[in-house]
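#data-curation
PF: Archiving a pair of folding outputs for the training set. Convention for this channel: one message per protein, sequence first, structure tokens after, nothing in between. First:
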Amino acid sequence: MTLDEKLDNFYHSAIDDATAQSVKMLESYELSLKEMAEEKKKSLKKQAEQKIHTESDNLLREKNKKLSNESMSIKRAISEKTKEKIDILFTDVEKRLSAYMKTPEYQDFLVNKINEAVAFANDDEITIYINPTDAHLKSALESSTKVELTISNIDFIGGIRCVITEKHILIDNSFISKLEEEKSNFKLS
């Protein structure tokens, strides 16, 4: 083998070796770039998923807040309407009570309540109050029940109030207390 042949052989061998090393380096570099690209892709995907999750949570929270505010607004409106309807109803009841108080049945009612209070007192001293608007009925009630009545200086719409001093008992059959009791217990269904 001549020197030229040897040099040519060495040259081809060196070129083949350099080419092989170059190919290996390129493959290795390409593989590392692919791995970096995959990691970056995974990282970006994870960030996107976190952002979607965060935004979804924010939207859900905002929706719940709006629903809660709307619900409170509706409840407030219902409550106001309910109160308005109850006021109308009890205004009507008061008008009907006022009309009832002008009937003979009202006087019978008062006689009945006075007799019940006297029976409850059972010989204890009792003070029976009638409403100032019923002052014109005082003498008729006293003659029907044989009990001395006192005209109250407090307006309680109608009915009677009694005090048994010895036992510290108040019997309240006044229309105002009955109305207030009904208002506090009243519920629209």
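PF: Second:
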Amino acid sequence: MDTKSLIIDKATLLFQQKGYKSVGVSEILKACEVTKGALYHHFPNGKEELLIASLHGLNETIMIDVEDIFSKHSSTQEAIQFMIDKLILSLETEGTITGYTFSSIVSEMATVSEPVRKACSLLYENIQSIYRAKLVSDGFTNESASTIAMWMIASIEGAMMLCLTQQSSDPLRTVAQLFPIILKGRTS
């Protein structure tokens, strides 16, 4: 792995675990075992530029994973259930859901930095478009699919944050139980 990719990977993990403001440049340098010069060589505008690169990397990783999950399942319900089961497994085996959640970054930085807000917004829009397309293929109208896709994102993101704060997978399990109720009979 090249130095720039290493810095992005380690910083992404730190940002997800601790939040942007709680992670200092020195902590990133230590985790990556690189010099300050190496960091600023790849990210001349500093930590915020690194955060944006991290968000773009997350976007790519999450999109590949979500697209893969949704392409392998015949219905939205099956895909969402698989995805939630995967999140629960991650929480229960690793004690965290770092691969998917970036809500803490959004809450910290979206009102402070327009480039960060745009990077976060793009990720949510991309996920919502995958959900919406699957819902349409399940028979939902475009309008219903858009509304439900937004609800799905809000529900899953909120449940992930609750899981992390409660140290329990119960919020994700509850959301998984509600999806069939929401999706049932909502076509047309």
